[in-house]
Design a protein that fits this description.
The structure is a single chain. This protein is an alpha+beta fold. It is built from eight helices and 24 strands. Strands 3, 4, 5, 6, 11, 12, 13, 14 and 15 form a nine-stranded mixed beta sheet that branches. Strands 1, 2, 7, 8, 9, 10, 16 and 17 form an eight-stranded mixed beta sheet that branches. A four-stranded antiparallel beta sheet has the order 21-22-23-24, with no helix packed on it. Strand 13 and strand 14 form a beta hairpin. The longest helix has 25 residues.
Length: 481
């Protein structure tokens, strides 16, 4: 499912890596983080190449809601409480600087990307006290966040925090312009990295600096990022004939965490997020969003719908900096939560600054050297230490095992101790795949909204045919039979 950004922009296709090359820096990943990092490095005189496994902007950048903001939910009250005021202030400084830098860059490069200054509101329909605490914490961190009970929303709120001076834009229009003068190779999948080389399906790149800007670092050791993050999915509807707010909004209540922003003549309504792979007994997220939309605006029409995936860290802070203590020339940007646009700019400024000797003073709070294990430890993590390659190849289920499977449905079936993931298309065709993720062997679950097999441990996703959709897995599922 394409987003409205993907409808409005046609990105020129680039060639694959032409063979073995050498550069000063190589960036793995052609999303907004990778493109921005490449842009700042090139402008600093560092000869840089960007490698993208698919097309630039084809991952989470094309699925975002395009908010540029330092308002990240109830972040500041939590950070002040857990890390202290100084570390929380660093986080605020970095993100607010990123908002300002977008404006400067867009003006300097004359980028037509529907950039629009507005406020970002955090609201609660349950409690005013939490909003008052967040406003006070933001102020303590140097951000002007006003408490208010007045919003444009079509329902009453108990309280809200208004962050002024934020922005929204069209991310792919911005990406298209910024990428024009960069050396980028598409359809070039990095399969491994060793010391000063990355190996791809088309050749090898030797570089002094290796930057992992690929959403989820696929190298398990060192770094152990698979133990320090999990992934969440969220859903978006583009609506016509709904209200078009001047400002952006996000709900703070767990059962009312909806996102609103205007995009041209559309309203983007987001929400219904969940941990990737948790699908049991849950109604369609798109249907639930649609029901909310019809309740608020009975004449609203859904024109587009899509979903995004976000890496979540245990402490709510991204990992931006050196990949590990063992690899002083490797760098990483990951764990953006649901704030990828602002975090992409923060990452580009930190990583390019570290390489060129101009590290921002607020970079320390984002350091990956802090250890927060346990993000992926769950009841779902079976076959620890094994991979799907080491598991017995699953079998083609007999008809008895498929009893009750309906067209358009997928589930894991078992027969005499053997398991398979099976999808039935609308014509009755059967698509059996191995039910184990090839990353680390976790059992997959079926996502009815996306018709995909999702990993509840680390967030890898596969089509119902077994094709790889999202990492950290680096290969698709084996067929059964």
């Amino acid at each position: 499912m394409e987003s409205i950004w993907e409808h409005e922009v046609t990105l020129p296709e680039r060639k694959n890596l032409p063979g073995n090359i050498e550069r000063e820096a190589v960036v793995i990943g052609g999303g907004l983080c990778g493109i921005l990092t490449g842009y700042y490095l090139q402008n600093a005189g560092v000869k840089t190449v960007i490698l993208e496994a698919d097309r630039i902007g084809s991952g989470q950048t094309g699925k975002t809601t395009g908010k540029i903001t330092s308002q990240h939910g109830c972040a500041y009250a939590r950070l002040v409480s857990r890390l202290g005021r100084e570390r929380a202030r660093q986080y605020a400084q970095g993100n607010q600087y990123a908002v300002t830098e977008y404006g400067r860059l867009i003006r300097r490069e004359k980028i037509d990307c529907d950039f629009h200054r507005c406020a970002a509101y955090l609201y609660s329909v349950r409690s005013s006290e939490e909003m008052e605490r967040e406003a006070a914490a933001a102020a303590a961190c140097g951000i002007h966040g006003n408490y208010t009970e007045e919003t444009e929303l079509p329902f009453p709120v108990k309280g809200a925090v208004r962050f002024s001076g934020q922005a929204r834009f069209s991310p792919l229009k911005f990406l298209e312009h910024l990428s024009r003068e960069l050396e980028i190779y598409e359809h070039t999948k990095v399969v491994s990295a060793e010391h000063d080389r990355v190996m791809t399906n088309w050749g090898t790149v030797k570089a002094d600096y290796i930057i992992f800007a690929c959403h989820y670092p696929f190298v398990n050791f060192p770094g152990f990022y698979f133990m320090r993050m999990y992934q969440q999915r969220s859903y978006v509807l583009a609506l016509k004939d709904a209200f078009l707010p001047e400002h952006m909004y996000l709900g703070a209540d767990p059962d009312h965490s909806y996102s609103f922003r205007t995009a041209g003549d559309h309203l983007l309504l987001g929400g219904e997020g969940h941990r990737t792979g948790e699908h049991w007994g849950l109604a369609s997220r798109y249907e639930k969003l649609g029901l909310r939309a019809r309740t608020w605006w009975p004449r609203a029409v859904v024109t587009d719908r899509w979903s995004a995936q976000d890496c979540m860290t245990m402490d709510g802070l991204p990992y931006i900096g050196r990949f590990s203590r063992m690899t002083d020339h490797w760098y990483v940007a990951a764990g953006f939560g649901k704030w990828g646009m602002t975090s992409s700019m923060v990452s580009a400024l930190i990583l390019s600054g570290m390489i060129t000797g101009n590290t921002p003073e607020w970079a320390g709070v984002f350091s990956p050297s802090r250890l927060t294990p346990g993000a992926s430890s769950s009841q779902f993590f079976s076959h620890s230490g094994k991979t799907a390659k080491n598991l017995a190849k699953a079998w083609l289920p007999p008809k008895e095992a498929l009893a009750g499977l309906k067209p358009g449905e997928g589930k894991i079936v078992e027969w005499k101790g053997r398991k398979a993931g099976v999808y039935m298309d609308e014509a009755g065709g059967i698509y059996p795949v191995s039910p184990r993720c090839p990353h680390m062997g976790c059992q997959l679950t079926f996502n009815q909204d996306e018709k995909s097999w999702d990993c509840p441990c680390h967030g890898s996703r596969f089509s119902y045919k077994g094709e790889l959709l999202d990492g950290p897995a680096q290969e698709g599922l084996k067929e059964n039979g």
